[in-house]
Design goal:
This protein has five helices and six strands; from the N terminus they run H-E-E-E-H-H-H-H-E-E-E. By secondary structure, it is α+β, with helices and mostly antiparallel strands.
Length: 150
């Protein structure tokens, strides 16, 4: 699917489920990592993570589009558009938009470092490098050492 097909799909969903036309842009953004999509408050554009479409297919993409359209239409109408707002929760439930999307990669798959406590031998995996002179074990307070670079 390309950006033009994504735009057409979004315009169809907006009319069918919300009864209001979508008048801005929607496009894929490969730099998104931890989110399925993002509504831009200033430009009113929507960015979609293409990995969601590649991993889970068109049905997951439609769910993400519905979720982002909830943000879009509520923001433009001046109502509560954040996840915590009652207006958002009600609209999302009405159109069948999910609260969250499925993760495409786990924390463990992104981890680069494994540390081990010198005292209790508990292992910790981390994405970023930790300063072992400052950080301590969360269980016993012992010193940490780099076990391996994954």
């Amino acid at each position: 699917m390309n950006n033009q097909a994504l735009q057409q799909l979004t315009e169809q969903i907006a009319i069918k489920d919300f009864g209001v036309p979508f008048k801005h842009r929607i496009y894929f953004n490969r730099r998104l990592r931890t989110t399925g999509g993002r509504y831009m408050l200033r430009s009113h554009d929507i960015e979609i993570n293409p990995k969601q479409y590649e991993h889970f297919g068109e049905e997951a993409l439609i769910q993400i589009i519905k979720h982002e359209l909830c943000h879009y239409f509520l923001h433009l109408s001046g109502r509560g558009h954040q996840h915590k707002d009652r207006d958002f929760k009600l609209l999302a439930k009405k159109v069948g938009a999910p609260r969250f999307c499925q993760p495409t990669e786990s924390y463990a798959s992104r981890a680069n470092y494994e540390y081990q406590c010198c005292s209790c031998k508990t292992s910790f995996i981390r994405i970023r490098k930790v300063d072992v002179t400052k950080m301590r074990c969360g269980r016993c307070g012992g010193r940490l050492q780099l076990k391996r670079h994954l």
